[in-house]
Task: structure prediction
Amino acid sequence: MTNNQADYQHFKLHSSAANDLEIRDLIELFVREMPGRIKFANDAFMRGDRLRLQFWAHQLKGSAGGYGFAQITIEATKLENTIIRNESADCVFVALRRVLDLCERATIE
Amino acid sequence: MTMSETTESNLPTVLAIDDSELIHRLLRARLHNERVQLHTAISSREGLEIARSLKPDVILLDLDMPEMDGFKVIERLKEDPTTQDIAVIFVSASNDMANRVRGLDLGAVDFIAKPFDVVELKARLRSALRVQHLIKILAQKAQIDGASGLWNRTYFDQRLAAEISEANRYNKPLSLTIIDLDGFKSTNDQFGHLFGDLVIERFSNILNSGRTSDVACRYGGEEFSVILPQTTATEAREVAERWRNQLANTTWHDHSGLMLTASFGVCDLECLDFPRTPAKLVAAADQAMYNAKKCGRNRVDVFSPTLIRK
Ligand SMILES: [Mg+2]
Result:
């Protein structure tokens, strides 16, 4: 393992429900599906499709907390609000980056 | 049907309407060990369809959905008599006070914020199911006659109309028996009302102990009616003869030697001219019953069209 990878490990975002046997498998699936979710949001942003991005943020806001990722829910709510308030592309980009940063770090290990 | 299937089908049903598969998955896992049967719909349209066919006890309804939002869905549910009594719990990520109030005003029983807390979700769902269960019991009680434990007149009217339309549609036999206790008023006067109540109760038990498909009702004071689906007048006559015998042979504690009897009028749908309506069937069975009274009581008479001309 390189130093970079070791640093990255430190930033991993753990599910608070990781020990909840009822949904452990589901959290694993939720994390495994993350790359597709991230791509969906990036594509929507690149195309300037705010409605799709808003829909994406809304879905994540409603579900991430249920999988033990409360922080993702908080940042997704902020992203949704910037779109609802029709803020500039820069503002939306910053809010989106915050959500995606958490998404990329989400893990079950 | 196996034991577990029987139990499963008795479980309360819950329908989750939510456009997010992530939420479906969570609900399935979270409610897996609850004593409920969970169904899911991924769109408003699908949800409305399933609600109409499944008639679930509770609907967990997402507020934000494309095409038709949760507010529109609940409006549709409340407009439709087949779905208006289903308890609706809104589940929404928009934790907005105005939305909550609007949802409750539209007839929702509760509101759960997303992402939901498992303990809260289960508690609110259980509470809604408890209330639904009590409502069902009350609705049934309102259709049962207190003194006899039989169905009351309101239920009889509804049920007879339903059975007749079914028999007409599928060309199945259907009979109706109307019964009047003989000399009940003088029994009451002679032995008191408490004894009269006992007679009503005993005779109701006789009517109720028959075939499970028969629908026994208290028609009025000492008048009873039994709907016999899939039964011809000849068969209904045999059934009525058994009831007549049972009552006549009942021994009455404290009044040994007392014989109480009833007169029975039977009619089947076949005897009626078209259109075959509940009112005509009741009138014909009544006519047969009065004929039994006229001919000496304690007997079963079957309606025939010539009776009217007599
Ligand atoms: Mg939704």
User: Anything to note?
Assistant: Chain B has two domains: 13-142, 153-302.
